[in-house]
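worker-03 picked up job from queue 'complexes'. Input manifest follows; two sequence lines, order preserved.
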Amino acid sequence: DGGITQSPKYLFRKEGQNVTLSCEQNLNHDAMYWYRQDPGQGLRLIYYSQIVNDFQKGDIAEGYSVSREKKESFPLTVTSAQKNPTAFYLCASRSGRAGDTQYFGPGTRLTVL
Amino acid sequence: GDSVTQMEGPVTLSEEAFLTINCTYTATGYPSLFWYVQYPGEGLQLLLKATKADDKGSNKGFEATYRKETTSFHLEKGSVQVSDSAVYFCALPKETSGSRLTFGEGTQLTVNP
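worker-03 finished. Artifact:
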Protein backbone atom coordinates (compact mmCIF):
# COMPACT_ATOMS: atom_id res chain seq x y z
CA ASP A 1 0.00 0.00 0.00
CA GLY A 2 1.36 3.39 -0.98
CA GLY A 3 0.87 6.29 1.35
CA ILE A 4 2.09 8.55 4.10
CA THR A 5 2.54 7.37 7.65
CA GLN A 6 2.93 9.54 10.72
CA SER A 7 3.86 8.34 14.14
CA PRO A 8 2.88 8.40 16.86
CA LYS A 9 -0.81 9.25 16.55
CA TYR A 10 -0.86 10.83 20.02
CA LEU A 11 2.13 12.35 21.76
CA PHE A 12 2.48 13.92 25.17
CA ARG A 13 5.37 16.12 26.14
CA LYS A 14 6.43 17.92 29.25
CA GLU A 15 7.28 21.59 29.00
CA GLY A 16 10.92 22.17 28.17
CA GLN A 17 11.37 18.92 26.25
CA ASN A 18 12.11 18.53 22.57
CA VAL A 19 10.07 15.96 20.67
CA THR A 20 10.35 14.56 17.14
CA LEU A 21 7.39 13.66 14.95
CA SER A 22 7.93 11.09 12.24
CA CYS A 23 6.71 11.31 8.64
CA GLU A 24 7.45 8.63 6.04
CA GLN A 25 6.13 8.28 2.48
CA ASN A 26 6.55 5.47 -0.03
CA LEU A 27 5.01 7.38 -2.94
CA ASN A 28 8.40 8.38 -4.37
CA HIS A 29 7.39 12.02 -4.00
CA ASP A 30 10.02 14.75 -4.20
CA ALA A 31 8.27 17.38 -2.07
CA MET A 32 7.20 17.09 1.55
CA TYR A 33 5.46 19.50 3.91
CA TRP A 34 4.60 20.02 7.57
CA TYR A 35 1.45 21.87 8.58
CA ARG A 36 0.04 22.79 11.96
CA GLN A 37 -3.70 22.82 12.68
CA ASP A 38 -5.26 24.46 15.72
CA PRO A 39 -8.86 23.81 16.77
CA GLY A 40 -11.38 25.41 14.48
CA GLN A 41 -8.70 26.85 12.24
CA GLY A 42 -7.15 26.17 8.88
CA LEU A 43 -3.71 24.76 8.30
CA ARG A 44 -0.52 26.78 8.54
CA LEU A 45 2.76 25.79 6.89
CA ILE A 46 5.75 25.13 9.16
CA TYR A 47 8.45 23.85 6.77
CA TYR A 48 8.67 22.32 3.34
CA SER A 49 11.26 20.47 1.31
CA GLN A 50 11.36 20.12 -2.46
CA ILE A 51 14.38 17.85 -2.63
CA VAL A 52 16.65 15.80 -0.39
CA ASN A 53 19.04 17.84 1.78
CA ASP A 54 17.12 21.05 1.17
CA PHE A 55 14.21 22.68 3.00
CA GLN A 56 12.60 26.10 3.48
CA LYS A 57 10.78 27.83 6.28
CA GLY A 58 7.07 28.29 6.05
CA ASP A 59 4.93 30.85 7.84
CA ILE A 60 5.41 29.62 11.41
CA ALA A 61 8.88 27.99 11.52
CA GLU A 62 10.00 29.50 14.83
CA GLY A 63 10.51 26.83 17.47
CA TYR A 64 10.60 23.99 14.92
CA SER A 65 13.35 22.21 13.00
CA VAL A 66 13.41 19.62 10.22
CA SER A 67 15.80 17.46 8.25
CA ARG A 68 15.56 15.75 4.86
CA GLU A 69 18.33 13.18 4.67
CA LYS A 70 16.27 10.65 2.73
CA LYS A 71 13.64 11.15 0.05
CA GLU A 72 11.03 9.18 1.96
CA SER A 73 11.50 10.78 5.37
CA PHE A 74 10.88 14.32 6.71
CA PRO A 75 10.92 14.38 10.55
CA LEU A 76 9.80 17.45 12.46
CA THR A 77 11.31 18.41 15.82
CA VAL A 78 9.26 20.60 18.12
CA THR A 79 11.75 22.34 20.35
CA SER A 80 11.34 23.87 23.78
CA ALA A 81 11.48 27.27 22.07
CA GLN A 82 8.02 26.71 20.58
CA LYS A 83 5.76 28.71 22.89
CA ASN A 84 2.49 26.94 22.26
CA PRO A 85 3.15 23.52 20.72
CA THR A 86 -0.13 21.80 21.55
CA ALA A 87 -1.73 21.20 18.15
CA PHE A 88 -2.51 18.68 15.42
CA TYR A 89 0.44 18.22 13.05
CA LEU A 90 -0.04 17.06 9.48
CA CYS A 91 2.59 15.89 7.04
CA ALA A 92 2.00 15.95 3.29
CA SER A 93 3.82 15.07 0.08
CA ARG A 94 3.47 15.63 -3.66
CA SER A 95 5.25 14.46 -6.75
CA GLY A 96 6.88 17.77 -7.71
CA ARG A 97 5.05 18.34 -10.98
CA ALA A 98 3.17 21.62 -11.14
CA GLY A 99 -0.50 21.25 -10.29
CA ASP A 100 -0.11 17.85 -8.69
CA THR A 101 -2.06 16.93 -5.61
CA GLN A 102 -0.69 17.07 -2.09
CA TYR A 103 -1.49 13.93 -0.14
CA PHE A 104 -1.75 14.02 3.63
CA GLY A 105 -0.84 11.64 6.42
CA PRO A 106 -3.20 10.79 9.31
CA GLY A 107 -1.66 13.39 11.63
CA THR A 108 -0.06 13.47 15.08
CA ARG A 109 -1.80 15.16 17.99
CA LEU A 110 0.77 16.70 20.32
CA THR A 111 -0.21 17.74 23.82
CA VAL A 112 2.12 19.59 26.16
CA LEU A 113 1.47 18.81 29.80
CA GLY B 1 -0.48 37.58 -1.87
CA ASP B 2 -2.42 34.45 -2.62
CA SER B 3 -5.44 33.86 -0.42
CA VAL B 4 -8.57 31.75 -0.11
CA THR B 5 -11.83 32.83 1.46
CA GLN B 6 -14.48 30.31 2.46
CA MET B 7 -18.03 30.97 3.55
CA GLU B 8 -18.46 31.28 7.26
CA GLY B 9 -19.65 28.19 9.07
CA PRO B 10 -20.75 26.01 10.59
CA VAL B 11 -23.37 24.65 8.21
CA THR B 12 -26.15 22.36 9.44
CA LEU B 13 -28.42 20.57 6.97
CA SER B 14 -30.97 17.80 6.95
CA GLU B 15 -30.28 14.64 5.02
CA GLU B 16 -30.98 14.96 1.27
CA ALA B 17 -30.69 18.76 1.34
CA PHE B 18 -28.68 20.69 -1.25
CA LEU B 19 -25.22 21.86 -0.21
CA THR B 20 -23.20 24.84 -1.35
CA ILE B 21 -19.97 25.93 0.28
CA ASN B 22 -18.56 29.10 -1.24
CA CYS B 23 -14.88 29.56 -1.99
CA THR B 24 -13.25 32.54 -3.63
CA TYR B 25 -9.56 33.06 -4.22
CA THR B 26 -6.90 35.61 -5.03
CA ALA B 27 -3.90 34.34 -6.94
CA THR B 28 -1.22 35.21 -9.43
CA GLY B 29 -1.82 33.30 -12.61
CA TYR B 30 -4.19 30.36 -12.83
CA PRO B 31 -3.26 27.75 -10.26
CA SER B 32 -4.96 24.42 -9.73
CA LEU B 33 -7.72 24.50 -7.12
CA PHE B 34 -8.54 21.83 -4.56
CA TRP B 35 -11.23 20.80 -2.12
CA TYR B 36 -10.13 18.64 0.80
CA VAL B 37 -12.29 16.94 3.43
CA GLN B 38 -11.32 16.17 7.02
CA TYR B 39 -13.21 13.72 9.21
CA PRO B 40 -12.83 14.01 12.99
CA GLY B 41 -9.37 13.11 14.22
CA GLU B 42 -8.04 12.35 10.75
CA GLY B 43 -5.82 13.91 8.14
CA LEU B 44 -7.05 15.66 5.01
CA GLN B 45 -8.32 13.69 2.03
CA LEU B 46 -8.51 15.08 -1.46
CA LEU B 47 -12.16 15.44 -2.45
CA LEU B 48 -11.76 16.94 -5.91
CA LYS B 49 -9.58 19.25 -7.97
CA ALA B 50 -9.59 21.38 -11.10
CA THR B 51 -6.46 22.34 -13.00
CA LYS B 52 -7.66 25.06 -15.35
CA ALA B 53 -10.46 27.55 -15.93
CA ASP B 54 -13.91 26.06 -16.63
CA ASP B 55 -12.77 22.63 -15.43
CA LYS B 56 -15.28 20.81 -13.26
CA GLY B 57 -13.97 18.52 -10.56
CA SER B 58 -16.29 15.84 -9.22
CA ASN B 59 -16.18 12.98 -6.73
CA LYS B 60 -18.70 11.14 -4.52
CA GLY B 61 -21.54 13.37 -5.73
CA PHE B 62 -19.64 16.59 -4.98
CA GLU B 63 -18.85 19.04 -7.76
CA ALA B 64 -16.96 22.32 -8.13
CA THR B 65 -16.29 24.43 -11.22
CA TYR B 66 -13.20 26.61 -11.66
CA ARG B 67 -14.62 30.05 -12.52
CA LYS B 68 -11.89 32.44 -13.63
CA GLU B 69 -14.26 35.36 -14.17
CA THR B 70 -15.57 35.28 -10.60
CA THR B 71 -12.39 33.75 -9.06
CA SER B 72 -14.54 31.13 -7.40
CA PHE B 73 -14.55 27.38 -6.82
CA HIS B 74 -17.79 26.70 -4.96
CA LEU B 75 -18.46 23.18 -3.70
CA GLU B 76 -21.91 21.67 -4.32
CA LYS B 77 -23.75 18.44 -3.67
CA GLY B 78 -27.33 17.76 -4.64
CA SER B 79 -28.29 15.50 -1.75
CA VAL B 80 -26.14 15.28 1.37
CA GLN B 81 -25.92 12.28 3.66
CA VAL B 82 -25.13 11.97 7.36
CA SER B 83 -21.77 10.48 6.36
CA ASP B 84 -20.83 13.79 4.65
CA SER B 85 -20.51 15.46 8.05
CA ALA B 86 -16.93 16.75 8.15
CA VAL B 87 -14.81 19.87 7.70
CA TYR B 88 -14.24 21.02 4.13
CA PHE B 89 -11.22 23.07 3.04
CA CYS B 90 -10.67 24.97 -0.19
CA ALA B 91 -6.99 25.32 -1.15
CA LEU B 92 -4.67 26.61 -3.85
CA PRO B 93 -0.95 26.01 -4.40
CA LYS B 94 1.68 28.70 -4.68
CA GLU B 95 3.87 27.42 -7.47
CA THR B 96 6.72 29.82 -6.74
CA SER B 97 7.01 28.51 -3.18
CA GLY B 98 7.26 24.78 -3.69
CA SER B 99 3.53 24.51 -4.37
CA ARG B 100 2.78 25.03 -0.71
CA LEU B 101 -0.98 25.09 -0.15
CA THR B 102 -2.88 28.12 1.05
CA PHE B 103 -6.07 27.02 2.82
CA GLY B 104 -9.35 28.61 3.60
CA GLU B 105 -10.49 28.55 7.23
CA GLY B 106 -12.56 25.42 6.70
CA THR B 107 -16.31 24.89 6.85
CA GLN B 108 -17.81 22.49 9.37
CA LEU B 109 -20.74 20.61 7.86
CA THR B 110 -23.18 18.69 10.03
CA VAL B 111 -25.90 16.63 8.37
CA ASN B 112 -28.79 15.51 10.57
CA PRO B 113 -30.92 12.44 9.78
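worker-03 released lock.
Chain A touches chain B through 27 residues (CB under 8 Å).
The longest strand of chain A covers residues 43-51.
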